[in-house]
Design a protein that fits this description.
The protein is of the alpha/beta class. The strands form 8 sheets. A 6-stranded mixed beta sheet has the order 11-16-15-14-12-13. The radius of gyration is 27 Å and the shape is globular. It holds the Pfam family Glyco_hydro_3.
């Protein structure tokens, strides 16, 4: 890797930051002594600080920030533009490290957070793609709340920061993407609900001050970022060519929801260019959309080394000073890395950026720290001051990790053998490279977990087991088929735990095909052929595979997808297999056949199909071809049925003003705004009530999806998700689920120039196999 290449590990640290990080880790590993958190305005320790306005908590935050900025020299201001923000000793401000991560638990990735003897681990929840499969918004928020509590507890003993660069809300557009595991999947609505839910869980406090932050979340990577390293095409130089329709219809909604619905404290701009412009240097994307349209209350941070990348790798500017200036002028507030610290002063002297722009940037950073209480003195005397090591890895937190895995696990196939009976299964063969893994279960952007329960441990806790890996690793060149088939032939039932790990799909590592890695397919097929009893396939992965061979194999009686299920993965897997938990997860992404990726380049960002060249489109919203499993697939051990008990009328009229153009000429669609969309206008909203009945003999949890197929105008989706609700029903129990539908918001589509339009004509509502048509007219 040349000196001009950015680091490809994790959240992409420059070498200087990485060296510091490694030193930090080595120090923390050997130190068990309690340390104190970083905070400013320690008036108790230095009474002279009370004279500073920025230390006066009685003042408005904006006044405090203005007071602080006014006291700084240019060099001091520049020190606050980078993730390792320099302290100002004369003002009682310590160094602060902005970079911490909390994708699915407090992570050791990033130099702001580390573990020690005092806090050796934190609760490691399932990787996001599996949590998303629960389709449970209250769960998303509950996990965020636990993660922020553990983060605050670690901050109080000097082990963590207050600013966390999570969640990742990019759309899982292509099944080969190595980081799809970090995301909530392919659907904009689900991704938006996850984004705002997790952010609220991280950020919201019990304080009466709604502006106060528990920790500061960050939605990344803005925007249209979903190519890491595919056939030599890298994220550092990739130019995502995205039309305005796809931008507003697919790529932007989760970020918009983060800011508007979640009130997120930060957005991270990405490495890639969008339509020729690096995202961290695009004033339209940063100042125009995030701040201007969405009104971000917080700061914009670069992905690590992004400013360096746009200069050295993308050659977007001729000089480093121009790169510094163009980023700050575009609306960037904080640079992960050291680039702005090195080149901003020269950019000011060259007249490329003025000091006012720097003041604006650091003001956004300081506002965030003020909202976190960083400038309010000793955190032990603040709202979360009582938290400490006792609040990390609590039994309740660990149980939530197990419950999240249970709710996310997706049952894809069951010909009747599941759930297994612990009384009739005397011996269980457990085979596969992921059967007894630990770290694989927690995916990437991980922290040290409280403890692990592997699939083998979970299963062995219920019945007598025999175990064989069958493959030395997931990419094995040789499978131990002979020993594996013998084990399966002697057992009452066989569980094969296979799939991927970070050597197959990861940051900076996209897949080139959808086949099971190594010799796993051969292992599965041969074991299934030789097995005496039922064979269950458990797939541990972020992305999907073409497992048509297993889907069609009658000897394989059950298939479960378990994502990367977190520290308690083995508990959840065993609970589902033995029927202690009735599976309720649904796929948050399409599982495509291998033939799909053979004809679709990963670099084509278009969502919609193109009949002129045979391009099939992407995701369930636009792709009409064959799938291995579809978005929303997932079955239960019981049978749920639906009936529509309240639906809108067949004709939904919209009232237009007398002089509206569509009164005198034929229109295909109407703007999704204006007087006809106001709440008092006729026909702007209706409800759909669905009666759900559990017709089986066991309790179950069911996700009710409400989809719509709009009229074929503006390249509209073939169908898209309007809403989803989780419901728990006892055996033979029924209940009514209610959806509120806003015609202008929910039934509109994005047109070719990015404007929302209501298609006139027939709309089809879908709930399971039920359909209801309605016609929107004027």
């Amino acid at each position: 890797m040349g000196s001009s290449s950015p680091l490809t590990r994790r959240n992409r640290a420059p070498s200087s930051v990485l060296s510091l990080f490694l030193v930090f880790l080595c120090f923390s590993a050997s130190s068990n002594a309690q340390s104190t958190p970083a905070f400013a305005c320690d008036v108790a320790g230095n009474s002279s600080l009370s004279a500073y306005g920025f230390c006066n908590a009685a003042l408005k935050i904006e006044a405090r920030v203005a007071d602080l900025v006014g006291r700084l020299t240019l060099q001091e201001k520049i020190g606050f533009l980078v993730n390792k923000a320099n302290g100002v000793t004369r003002l009682g401000i310590p160094t602060y490290e902005w970079w911490s991560e909390a994708l699915h638990g407090v992570s050791y990735i990033g130099p702001g957070t580390h573990f020690s003897g005092q806090v050796p681990g934190a609760t490691s929840f399932p990787q996001v793609i599996l949590t998303a499969a629960s389709f449970n918004v209250s769960l998303f928020q509950a996990i965020g709340k636990v993660v922020s509590t553990e983060a605050r507890a670690m901050y109080n003993v000097g082990l963590a920061g207050l600013t966390y660069w999570s969640p990742n809300v990019n759309i899982f557009r292509d099944p080969r993407w190595g980081r799809g595991q970090e995301t909530p999947g392919e659907d904009p609505l689900l991704s938006s609900k996850y984004a705002s839910g997790y952010v609220k869980g991280l950020q919201e406090t019990e304080s009466s001050d709604a502006n106060r932050l528990k920790v500061a979340a960050c939605c990344k990577h803005y925007t249209a970022y979903d190519v890491d390293n595919w056939k030599g095409i890298e994220r550092y130089t990739f130019n995502a060519v995205v039309n305005q329709q796809d931008m507003d219809d697919t790529y932007q909604p989760p970020f918009k929801s983060c800011v508007i619905d979640g009130n997120v404290a930060s957005v991270m701009c990405s490495y890639n260019k969008v339509n020729g412009i690096p995202t961290c240097a695009d004033p339209d994307l940063l100042s125009g959309v995030i701040r201007g349209e969405w009104k971000l209350n917080g700061y914009i941070v670069s992905d690590c080394d992004s400013v360096d990348v746009l200069y050295k790798n993308q050659h977007y500017t001729k000089t480093p000073e121009e790169a510094a200036a163009i980023s700050i002028n575009a609306g960037l507030d904080l640079n992960c890395g050291s680039f702005l610290g090195q080149h901003t002063e020269a950019a000011v002297k060259a007249g490329l950026v003025n000091e006012t722009a720097i003041d604006k940037a650091i003001s956004n950073n300081f506002l965030t720290l003020m909202r976190l209480g960083f400038f309010d003195g000793d955190p032990k005397k603040q709202i979360y001051g009582g938290l400490g090591p006792k609040d990390v890895c609590t039994p309740a937190n660990q149980e939530l990790a197990a419950e999240a895995a249970r709710q996310g696990i997706v049952l894809l196939k069951n010909t009747g053998s599941l759930p297994l009976s612990p009384t009739t299964i005397k011996t269980l063969a457990v085979i596969g490279p992921n059967a007894n893994v630990t770290k694989t279960m927690i995916g990437n952007y991980e922290g040290t977990p409280c403890k692990y329960t592997t699939p083998l441990q979970g299963l062995a806790g219920t019945v007598s087991t025999t175990y064989l890996p069958g493959c030395s690793n997931v990419a094995c060149a040789v499978a131990d088929v002979d020993a594996a088939t013998k084990l399966a032939a002697d057992a009452d039932a066989t569980v094969l735990v296979i799939g991927a790990d970070q050597s197959i799909e990861a940051e900076s590592r996209d897949r080139v095909d959808l086949n099971l890695p190594g010799k796993q397919q051969d292992l599965v097929t041969q074991v299934a052929k030789a097995a005496k009893g039922p064979v269950l396939l458990v797939i541990m992965s972020g992305g999907g595979f073409d497992i048509t061979f297993a889907k069609d194999d009658p000897k394989i009686t059950g298939i479960l997808w378990v994502g990367y299920p977190g520290e308690a993965g083995g508990i959840a897997i065993a609970d589902v297999i033995f029927g202690r938990y009735n599976p309720s997860g649904r796929l948050p992404m399409t599982w495509y056949p291998q033939s799909y990726v053979e004809k679709v380049p990963m670099t084509n960002m278009n969502m919609r199909p193109d009949t002129s060249n045979g391009y099939p489109g992407r995701t369930y919203r636009f792709y009409t071809g064959e799938t291995v499993y579809a978005f929303g697939d997932g079955i239960s051990y019981t049978k749920f049925s639906h009936s529509l008990v309240k639906v809108p009328p067949r004709v939904v009229p919209l009232s237009l003003e007398e002089n509206h153009v569509c009164r005198s000429s034929e229109c295909q669609s109407l703007d999704a705004f204006g007087p006809h969309c106001e709440k008092k206008a006729v026909g702007t909203a209706f409800e759909v009530h669905v009666k759900v009945r559990n017709g089986g003999d066991r309790e179950g949890i069911h996700t009710v999806f409400l989809f719509t197929t709009p009229p074929a105008v503006h390249g509209s989706p073939r169908k898209h998700l309007l809403g989803f609700e989780k419901i728990r029903l006892g055996k033979r129990e029924e209940a009514v689920v209610k959806f509120k539908v806003d015609v202008c918001k929910d039934l509109s589509v994005v047109d070719e120039v990015g404007k929302r339009k209501i298609g006139l004509g027939q709309h089809l509502l879908h709930v399971g196999d039920l359909k209801h048509s309605l016609s929107i007219r004027i």
